[in-house]
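In the current project phase, we have settled on a layout for protein records. One protein thus recorded is set out beneath this paragraph:
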Amino acid sequence: MSLNNDAVGYEPGIRAALPGRISRRVAQAEMALGGALVAAICLSLLAGSVSRTLGQPLIWTDELAVHLMVWVAFLGASLGIATRSHMAVALLPERLSSRGRAWLLLLSDLLVMVFFVVMGWLIWRWFDLPGLLRAGSGAALASDTFNFIYTDPTLTLGVPKFWFWLIVPMTCMTGAIHALAALSADLTELRRQA
């Protein structure tokens, strides 16, 4: 996956602004983390397979692999925003002028940013950090609000699930960074065309 300056079809250098540079660094970190997680998934599945062959199955390896796959999927979704490589129907943009395409891209990126703002608000309510601080513990929060995010354990690992759910707010932040970089590039392109 390439993270060059003209990843969106604009002239080279348009994404070289500060938001684009930050987005590129975040995307590089996401790719490195994604690669490490894929290796961890392979090792987890291999350990589970070998342990079953030896008659001493490690029951937690499959669950760990599934949780790590979810992390990889979320990282990939964020990287798709950074590289504009999500699936799209290009029928309308092909029929528009270059200025029309730039406006359509700006609208599309604005909608992505609105999605992340709404997602961020929902995540804030879900994780309820102020409620957790007021309650003093995850168990007290669950007792007061029926929000079991901090107390619900995984089935075989015995680890609170919220450690695995942290990928959701992380993706919200990284996706918003990538969307902000795309908006910056869109506005730069529109100014260049004016």
About this structure: The longest helix spans residues 18-53. Residues 14-85+97-193 form one domain. The radius of gyration is 21 Å. The chain has eight helices and no strands.
